[in-house]
Structure formats: structure tokens, C-alpha cells
Amino acid sequence: MIVWVTGANGFIGRHLVHELAGAGHAVHGVGHGALDAAESRRLGLQSWINGEIDAANLNALAAAHGLPAQIFHLAGGSSVGISIERPFEDFSRTVASTARLLEWLRGSAPNCAVIAASSAAVYGADHVGPIAESAIATPMSPYGKHKLMMEQLCGSYAQSFGIRCTIVRLFSVYGPNLRKQLLWDICSRLAAKEQVLTLGGTGNEIRDWTDVRDVARLLASVATPSSQAAFRVINGGSGRGTSVSDIAAGLIRQWGGNTVVRHSGVSRPGDPLSLLADDAVLRQIGFDWRIPLDRGLADYVAWFKGQAS
Amino acid sequence: MIVWVTGANGFIGRHLVHELAGAGHAVHGVGHGALDAAESRRLGLQSWINGEIDAANLNALAAAHGLPAQIFHLAGGSSVGISIERPFEDFSRTVASTARLLEWLRGSAPNCAVIAASSAAVYGADHVGPIAESAIATPMSPYGKHKLMMEQLCGSYAQSFGIRCTIVRLFSVYGPNLRKQLLWDICSRLAAKEQVLTLGGTGNEIRDWTDVRDVARLLASVATPSSQAAFRVINGGSGRGTSVSDIAAGLIRQWGGNTVVRHSGVSRPGDPLSLLADDAVLRQIGFDWRIPLDRGLADYVAWFKGQAS
């Protein structure tokens, strides 16, 4: 099957391409990143266009390799902080790119299914306990607001033009190759032999941690929906919450040593106390999370030490 | 005061420019339309840029005439039907233009207040009776969905960057110069001496009709908010509902003659049975609608006959 991945050179994109190519699909990618042909092939891509998600590039891919049966749409802003520093850039990457993609599909490949990566950031900071897909979305940051607008655009093209879209709201995705956020920060400071790690917040913040290899398998598995609904939204979370202090302790245990963790008690404005998926829909689909947190953290530490050496 | 109007050459824009210039403001415009200098001045514009709402054009306006204290943002898609035929065009006009405007304001004129024209189409088709601003927004068409996204972008820039935005959700605006929609259609057919007018729908559809001259005065009056809230949404409707069959009868009465109106009974998919504003917020502000429907319809018929002759 011909499948395309936008943002294929990103953290999740690379793992997804690996998963899809491993399943025997012909995978083509478009997005930012100066990958040469050898590197593209190594990742599992049959071809790669380094550029915008726009009609010219999508036409070029189609002309060279045929129309896709599925598009995994991972291109978009990827940082709450950068979305506050440069909101228009985040808008362009997340919303405008999706509008161009959907419009191209409407005209050129209306039977292609879209699987779009959204974020738990659409839920905002006001939820307690597991959050169902039907919960009110009150995103705090431009990043979260733009992701919600991306979902709405998909919903609009699904409702008005029958484009089939599956939205997967991803939670706290971590794993090999993630070079930012909490785990990267902690490992970097462990590598620098800090004896006392002071982290922001209280340490009691709950997140739903998922290993990127499981997430890649999840995205691939929802591409062929069992139902005929043109539009659906799925929580891509495990339903298991772990506090930041437990994550830090787990990482340090895998790392070795007896580094002490302290928390500043100062939270970033708008940082949710809890972002935990209600996983009822995923359980109904029958998806199985395979990489428990302990193993995921061990793999992350092993990758970190390996890439740093 | 320096004020700018985007989409100043549109139906509502022209009336708004007239209102603002009459109040003594220095009014500048940007949007589509090949207005020459004489025509611009006649409309009340001190200057006009025929082009996109983008940083280059906004910079040019600011360099030539100084920064605005208020921007009335009326540029955007203006037709449900066209939004279904060409959804990306509607997205570009409504959402992408707003993103560019807000980003420019953030960098270049953060103290400028924005007054943005939205639409009752954001409410969708499921409401009965007066609709409050807090009602759930379930827009049906790309037009309504994009208007909602425009509102969300304004809310995002208000919340994250303190840009002051007032959203006015307009209902069924009619009046001199409106050359489309129900009133135009009926008058055109009366002018063609059709003896029996067959209209779509049941005739019982309720709309909240407002004369564009009142709407222009409303937009100008909410530009200086009494409260300090960075973001607010206001229904720009009168709170009075009138059925399509009563509008048709009123128009025919003003026109003269005894044309008969029939209704096909066939409604357009997604066409709401009722779009009526809860006007509590406007009443609290103290806004007074001055042009009753009878006078508005009489003026419309007089304008129609005058422009046609």
C-alpha cells in the first residue's frame, strides 16, 4: 500500500516510517529536513521531499509515485514554548499546512484516509482524572489551540466533503531520539553529574507517558478504521498516570547513582496538574500497549548513553 | 483617532467606513477592490490598499499614516455556498488573514484594539429560541467553522499576548448595497414581474434581521469597551425573530402589487430553522437598534428600485 507521512523526519515521524516500512508499505514523506537519499532509505522512506506541505509538493509526490491510500499527518508545531514565542509560525505549521493538505486531498485524492496527530494539549488544564475524547476542549497555549483548530478543519472536510479523518490525541510521548522535554533534560543533567536536580513544579503533576514505538504502532493500527465514520477522535494515551517525581526517580534508578531530586514548587502558568487519557476507545479497538514504563525508561537511558558516547 | 478597516470595500465595510468617518476618525482601509482615490475619498477612506491582509501591506499603511488605535477586521469569506465550493479560499480569507493580522499586531501594534466580525453561523442549526453567546458552537458549513476558528485565534492572541479583541457575531444583516441573499433575490424577481415567487424552505425559518446601518453603528460603538477584558464575544443581533415568509410579505408590501409567495418545503441541508440572538449583552451595553424592520425593508426597496433605474 502507498502511504505518505508528513513530518516524517520528526521524532514520532521517524518511528512511524520505520513501523510502516516494516509492515511492507511503500512509504513516502514530505516535510522539513535535508535528508539525502541514503538516509531516507535507511529510515524506511522510498522518497522524501524536503519542503512545505503544499499542492506543488503533493502533486510532485503523486506524479512520481502514485496516489496514497493513507496519509499520516504529523507535520506541525511541536513545542508549547515556541508556540508562545512565535505563534504565527506555530499556526502556519499546524493549521495552514493542514488546510493545504485537506484541500489537496479534496481535489486530488478524496479516497485517501487521513490520520492526524493531535495532542492532549487541546484539553487544557482544568481536567481531573481520566479525560474522555468528549471532554470540553479548553486549550491554554497557542500550540493547543492550533491543534484544536487542526482537528476542526479535519472535521469540517470530513463533514462537508467526506474526507475520512482519524485524529489521535497524543499524550506524553517519549522514547529514543527525543532530544527535548523532561526526560532529555534530566538525562542531560545526570550526564553532567549534577548531584541535586531541581525541577520545576511540585513533582505531583500527572502525565500519561507512552513510548514512541508503541505510539507508532498505534498510529499505524488506527489507519484502517473498523467503522465507516468519516471522522473520529481517539485518545492516544495509555490510561495510566505517573507523576513527574516518579518519572525522575525511575530515570535515576535506570541511570545509576543516588542523585537527589527537588522540586521548586513553582509551576509554569497554564501547566496542567493532570493530563491522563480515558482509554476506553482504545481498549474497545483492542490496542495493546506493549512497552511498560520501566522498560521504556531503561531503553531511553540506554539510548541516551549510547548517543552521547 | 486613526482606525483601520479590513474588507472596507465589502457590504458592511462600506457602511462602517461611512459611520467612522462621520464620527471624525481618520479611516484607512485594506482589502480587495480596485478603488481609485476619488472613490476611496467618497466612501470616507483617507487611504486604501488593494491587497491581502499581510505584514507588507500593514507595514506600508503604518509607515504612511501611523499606527491605528483600532482595527475593524471585516475581511473574510462571505458566503456559505462559496465556502462549500471553495473551502480553502474561505479558510484563507477568514482564518489565515486573521492569523497574519494578529501576528502583525503582536509585533507592531500590541495596544491596538481589534473588533472582528464573526457570524451567527458559528452556532449551527441545533438551537431553539434566543441563542446566548455562551451557547455551544456547532457550525455546519466551512464558512461557520472558519469563522469559529477566527474567533479562537483572536481568543488565543488575547489570552497569550494581551491583544484586545471584541468579536461581534452578526446575524442576518441586510440593507442598501446588499446584492445577494434573500432580499436581493426577492426584489430581483419582483423586478422581473414574476407573479408567483417560489422560495426554498418552509417559510417558517426564523432569522434575526438587522439593518446594515445599525450594524455599522454597533461595530463602531463596541470598539471602546467599558470593561478591561482582553477578549469578549457579543451577539450582534436584535433579539427579534422574523420568519422568511413575513420578510417576503413585508418586501412585497413595500414593493407594491399582489405577488403570491409559495415555499417549496425543501430546505437546504444544514440550514438552521432558527437563528435568533439572545441580546442580553447588547442591552447591558445599552445599544439601541434604531431602524425597525418596516423602515429597513422600505429603504431596501427604495434603494433597489433606485439602483436599478
From TrEMBL, chains A, B:
The residues covered by the NAD-dependent epimerase/dehydratase domain are 4-225
Could you name the domain of life of the organism this protein comes from?
Answer: Bacteria
Question: Which SUPFAM superfamilies does this UniProt record tie to the protein?
Answer: NAD(P)-binding Rossmann-fold domains (SSF51735)
Q: List, alphabetically, the InterPro entries matched.
A: Epimerase_deHydtase, NAD(P)-bd_dom_sf
Q: Give the residue spans that cross the bilayer.
A: none
Q: Which Pfam family would be a valid example here?
A: Epimerase
- Pathway(s) per entry: Bacterial outer membrane biogenesis; LPS O-antigen biosynthesis
Q: Which CDD domains match?
A: SDR_e (cd08946)
Q: Which family does it belong to?
A: Belongs to the NAD(P)-dependent epimerase/dehydratase family.
Q: What is this protein called?
A: NAD-dependent epimerase/dehydratase family protein
Taxonomic source organism: Bradyrhizobium pachyrhizi
Taxonomic classification: Bacteria, Pseudomonadati, Pseudomonadota, Alphaproteobacteria, Hyphomicrobiales
